[in-house]
Design goal:
The chain has 294 residues and is an alpha/beta fold. It has helices at residues 13-24, 40-44, 53-57, 70-78, 83-86, 101-113, 127-132, 143-154, 168-197, 201-210, 216-227, 236-252, 258-275, 285-293; strands at 6-9, 29-32, 48-49, 62-65, 92-95, 117-120, 123-124, 135-140, 157-164. Bound molecules: NADP nicotinamide-adenine-dinucleotide phosphate (NAP). The site of NADP nicotinamide-adenine-dinucleotide phosphate (NAP) has 28 residues, from helix 1, helix 4 and helix 12.
Length: 294
């Protein structure tokens, strides 16, 4: 199965690590990235670098996209020289980006119109999990299609969870990231409060990490907020996007995510103040600055 030709579209924080693991597992790999320079290291490791999505998917049995958002996904699948029309007639398409279920439905319908098999399979796990091949895929779609791509997804992951029909993976991912985003935003407020309260910050954060609020997210992010190390694991602008998609998607089920709206407002303020391209933990910075102004 390691001779299955694979195309990977999108070589950002996540796609770069995923591509490296596909090469390590021996899959013949073609890659495309809007900014071509990000493909250079992979070319040196044996990937075929394509100038367009259409050129990348030529000959691929499995096509995986790992892109920022709905707009990026639309551009790469359906834009000029897009992947969808150029994909081989027996290819299985996998949208691994965190995108809205509404867009997944549209993309899946377009794939079906071409007679192509399609799965949504967004991931949990961040930059290091992508680099280490330790992601979890949240898959939606036909079980037989998933079985076909399993050896390819296995090379990038520790777990593949089949959640149901197309769109189930995207839905689950937004529920997951809604809870992640709300925790990060709430933690930012707690850290600003701790710092202004006169408490010993490290002692306070250790108590929180070891106590009931101490989720893996709170533990990891509190360290980044304390050290102010905003090396990108998860871009702030992408978490802002995720809570926005979660808010809009839950509303369609008649559930108003008020806490997502509150979290989004914190991410938007931080983005407006220049933190969009930093790690999401930098959402604490405007709260710190507001304290100094008083
Ligand atoms: P990233 O580093 O920002 O990479 C985004 C990718 O999308 C890049 O390849 C970028 O190309 C491409 N892109 C953006 N806009 C585009 C457009 N209009 N047309 C064509 N390509 C476009 O993001 P990432 O962290 O790898 O995340 C990728 C996806 O995985 C996102 O949906 C994110 O929410 C999700 N995710 C991320 C994490 C994480 O911890 N980072 C974890 C789980 C899931 P350029 O290089 O040219 O900009």
């Amino acid at each position: 199965m390691a001779n299955t030709p694979v195309a990977l579209l999108g070589l950002g924080t996540m796609g770069g690590g995923m591509a490296a693991n596909l090469l390590k597992a021996g899959f013949p790999l073609a890659v495309y990235n809007r900014t071509a320079a990000k493909a250079e290291a992979l070319a040196a490791s044996g990937a075929r670098v394509a100038a367009t999505p259409a050129a990348a998917v030529k000959g691929a049995a499995v096509v995986i996209a790992m892109l920022a958002d709905d707009d990026a996904s639309r551009a790469v699948w359906m834009g000029a020289d897009g992947a969808l029309n150029a994909a081989e007639s027996d290819a299985v398409l996998v949208e691994a980006s965190t995108v809205s279920p509404a867009w997944i439905a549209e993309l899946a319908a377009a794939a079906k119109a071409r007679g192509l098999e399609f799965l949504d399979a967004p991931v949990t796990g961040s930059r290091l999990a992508a680099a280490d091949g330790q992601l979890t895929f949240l898959a939606g779609g036909d079980g037989a299609s998933l079985a076909k791509v399993k050896p390819v997804l296995d090379a990038m992951s520790k777990e593949i969870v089949h959640l149901g029909p197309v769109g189930s993976g995207a839905m689950m991912k937004l529920i997951n990231n809604f809870l992640c985003g709300v925790q990060v935003a709430s933690l930012a407020e707690a850290v600003a409060w701790i710092e202004r309260s006169g408490l010993d910050r490290d002692k306070a954060l250790t108590l929180l990490k070891n106590g009931a609020p101490g989720s893996p997210m709170i533990s990891a992010i509190s360290e980044r907020m304390a050290s102010r190390d905003y090396t990108v694991n998860f871009l702030l602008k992408l978490m802002s996007k995720d809570v926005q998609y979660a808010h809009a998607t839950a509303a369609k089920s008649g559930v108003e995510l008020r806490t997502a709206a509150a979290a989004r407002s914190l991410f938007e303020i931080a983005a407006a103040e220049g933190h969009a391209e930093q790690d999401m933990s930098s959402v604490v910075e405007p709260l710190r600055a507001a304290g100094k102004a008083k």
